[in-house]
Fold these 4 entries.
Entry 1:
Amino acid sequence: MFSRFALIAAPLLFALTAAAPRPAAKARPVPVEAPLPDVVRVALATELGTITIDLDAKHAPISSANFLRYVQQKRFDGIVFYRAMHLPWGDQPNGLIQAGTQGNPKRILKPIAHEPTSATGILHKAGTISMARFAPGTATGDFSIMVSDMPGLDADPKATDPEAVAGYAAFGHVVDGMDVVRKIYDAPLSATLGEGFMKGQMIEKPVRVLTARRIPIPAVPSLAPIPAEAPAAAPPPTG
């Protein structure tokens, strides 16, 4: 499934690996909190503009609740978009951008259980937000936004590789601000920063997230009922 991505230093399976030291042991997953509305909207105000994201809490409740927990505790305030993966094939632009806590012990919370796309039905399309991780069940506070469709990150239950079977956990999509996503994607990259397959994908001057806040979803105005036409007046009697 991932052989078509052999043109880069590592297969795309590692595209959403968090840029943080690998944890020594897998922590216990954080339990899901009180049920959320089906959709929760979050605004990421960055140095280059605002990215508005709808979290799909109906289909990916664990990942959505985790992201919202970071937002509500202001753990995303001051983080940076530090990575832009550019794939040199297919329709351009092709790749993703990545941000998060980068293993900062003052910011990260406990890992969450993995929600594969085969269970949620949320696929890695352009504008999709997805959790970065090491092994399934290790995702914390790093995430990526797809600049293009990236089906290679979806779970493949028929694969023989356990990593490919798991895929990555997509949990929402950008509803406004894809132009900002593109600005971040187009930021100059460093030729030296990053280790292993991430070398050459790190943004030279990371783009700061100023604030991350939950915002209301505007109500859809209801249409006023169309008044029924009054029946035509009966003609006056004749004769």
Entry 2:
Amino acid sequence: MNSGIVIIPTYNEKENIAKLIPEIIAQNLPLDILVIDDNSPDGTSQVAGKLIIQFPQIHLITRTGKLGFASAYLTGFKYALEHGYQFIWQMDADLSHQPKYLQDFWQKIQESDLVVGSRYVPGGGIEGWPWFRLFLSKFASLYAQIILGVKLKDFTGGYNCYRREVLEAIDLAKIISQGYSFLLELKYKTILRNFKYCEIPIIFVERQQGKSKISRKIIWEAAINCWKLRFGL
């Protein structure tokens, strides 16, 4: 069985992916990398394709269009499970998730089923956000904690690692989220099934290249889906 795979959804991330992938490989861990690109017009797939020549542990799926965040991860999870990976990471392409933390994830996932890279535990934090965005993010995690009745500090963070047994136990076909609330839903369904989880501190760094993909629609979806998940709707 293969050890681990880092799934990275991309859309117009050619500058970032060219920096990120070598940094992941430099951690010298038994990890493959799966880039799932939604046919980026900036040539992200082409950049990833060139990197594959240098680093054979990279894999690339280029989709037909912008099919969405949750859809990209579900495609990645299917690939990871079919190819026998034991540990499966979620990671942003924009360098906000620093590869140096993969070492901490690797240690903790040996004894946990889910490891969450948390901005809101001691030692964690965020660099480069204005106060209102930081407030909104903290409020969203607190809101989820209260509605869902779970004490996880960082429900909305996207830097996570799952054991394959977790993803096999969750009926991924019944995921209701399409946007970033997918992160929240997956964590909640993991905890509901009594899998062992922990949070490790990370410093989240605001992207330097490209544009954030957070929108009002994504925020409202997360707020509404908390109630749907709580009452099994």
Entry 3:
Amino acid sequence: MAPAYILAADIGGTKTATAVISSSGEILQMSKAPTDRGGPPALIEQIIAMLQEDLTRAEGDLADVLGLGVGVPAVIDAEHRVVVWAPNLPGWENVPLHDELVARLNLPVCMEYDGHAAVLGEWWLGAGRGYRNVVFVIVGTGIGGGMILDGRLYRGASRLAGAAGWLVLDTQRVSDKVARQLGHWESLAAGPGIARLAAEKLQQSGEPSILCQQISDSYEKLTAQMVFDAARQGDALACEVIRHIGEVLGVGIANIVSLTNPEVVIVGGGVGTQADLLIEPIREVVLHNAQPVSAKAVQIVPSQLGENAGLLGAAKAVLLHGGCCDDQ
């Protein structure tokens, strides 16, 4: 009997998701839980337990599983299939994740940088379907992503292509501590950067704002979601912040468009889900600043798969390798 299922895991710094997925991309069973941050053994145990529970609920059998695809927010040593460094996962340095999962599940395992898994998902079943040149920009707590170029996933020499948060947009920020720790574009336009900018403007402005009522005694309580919510209520300061963030995102995307000449740029992630407020300023900046032919040709669209892009892309990685993931 031909394998009927693919197992998938999308590991995040705060949340981990697992699923049983059909070869056509239907999510048959899915689980989500806070990521166990007690070190590699604990998280590996959590992933295996979640996958086994998913398979049980899907009434599946390991004998019918083609393989396991895993998206990891980490530097991966492809030759040795080791997680070299995962900055958002405490203790994850030189962890033989591939071999541990193979030994425990007796299945082929494909590991991908999480941005690469996500763009595979959108290319397979989301906003990138039918295109040969796709860029996925994922804006959340940080900024990452992945690229499909000429119909193939582009990984880069160290399997880190798509780490767009490190784009340097302003040389005056080169010595900025936050920019050096987080990545330059990321420090300006990801969730914490949005909250930081709103706090700065609130401190400088004497104008009334919905945000003042929400945070009462501490600017540190501000979140990007609060800023988006206030903008939807017409708060002038919040609208100004969001417009600025759209322009900053547009500058980074304009650079990507000029460099890669994609057919479509997909915007996703937690911040990207606010696309109705961001897409138009992004498009305006790209149209006026990117290489003119590329700027006119590219489509800039929101993600269709949302937070499931990484899971579906991890499953697609298994399908692309036919279950034989040792040659990845």
Entry 4:
Amino acid sequence: MVEHLELEQVAPYEWRIQPTGRMHVPVTVFADETTITQLTEDITGQAEWNALRQAVNVACLPGIVQGSLALPDIHPGYGFPIGGVGAFDMEQGVVVVGGVGFDINCGVRLLATDIERGAVERHLDALADALFSTVPAGLGSQGSLRLKPAEIDRVLVEGAAYAVHRGFGDKEDLAFIEEGGRMSGADPATVSDLAKQREYRQVGTLGSGNHYLEIQAVDAVLDGEAAAVYGLHRGQIVVSIHTGSRALGHQIGQDSLKEMAAAAQSYGIRLPEQELACAPIESPEGRRYLSAVACGANCAFANRQTIAGLVRRAFADVRELGSVTLRTVYDIGHNNAKIERHVVDGVERSLLVHRKGSTRAFGPGREESPTKYRSVGHPILVGGTMGTASYVLRGTERGMRRAFGSGIHGAGRAMSRKKAAKKYWGETVVEQLEASGICIRAHSLRSVAEEAPAAYKDVDTVVKAAIGSGINAAVARLAPLAVVKG
């Protein structure tokens, strides 16, 4: 463990810890001065979980390339910091369970409507009620896409396309989902029966915690060209869906930790922290885990596709709105590990890129982006809190060079859920949101307290740091009108 961490500023909103001890590469932190102060105070205050120390531990893993990266929304995670990025050489590197996390491919889908804010505000309560009753949410919720044991394997392989096959959405949606809504390499045999059993009735459910469904208005257009490419304009109503792979992803994480911890020991990998259980990428254990991750990612794509279909039904149920079209702008995850091509030291090479609480943020020209978006790069969908803004950003050339084409995924927590639940009352948070004109429908007041806006960093400040560092660029700001929580 590194006890003394010396941060030096190397560029606006960019800080570095040079390699010492067992570190193979430096740590690069993209953040504002306030965030840096908070991170260093956690070190001196001996905080039990420390994001900066976690980033240093990642820098000690075998085969890591260029640097252990921390983005402006950094906060402590399980072993690997949330808002962390690590890319690993395919031959010498490892795959890290903590670098993906327990909610595999948790992500955001943004739907754009063809109606304006004024048309919705008169019927906001009715629409919030329709969404609350149509989209299952909360602990133990069951989805509309009921699956037989034989069908769950199809979900794990086909992803969003299976939900479309079952009548949730259209094939046109698939062109605007990361990976086309289906990660390759998924083998259901790498997923335990227990994980599958836990998922039979959860596809099409929002879940709890920080997952949400939000009706928003485009509050400001910050890049007219990119916004036009994405089909966004000021005053337009949009819908954000934030959820992931539900119980299946969590069980994959639990199952894999045991195997990967044993693998690390058998391959002689000296772990800087036991929570960074890992295995060589090309080992049997590494390949099995990556296949299971692909299964979890496809489950998450299917989940968001199913919910998008339910959102369309809910809008149709509010007859006062008339006929409303909801188009998929983009769907992208922020807990994943993917093999990608990146230039390092002037040479293009294949790397396994872990993004934990970080989203892919490819700039212009990458073939992974939808053809329609290729001139500006694909959207980055950044969630705020129930009472603040969300953002649409895009990738940049600097972000491709300095951050492996990665971007922020949200505001980032300022305090743990346990602390937030002690400090805030759910009823009070609901009253404050409604007083500011935001409708909220929630299955649990404790969840509302845990997700109180004040429990998070200021999203505007986080976005400013991402833009100021040059790794991301702003496109549009979204204001919340109504929120559905588990």
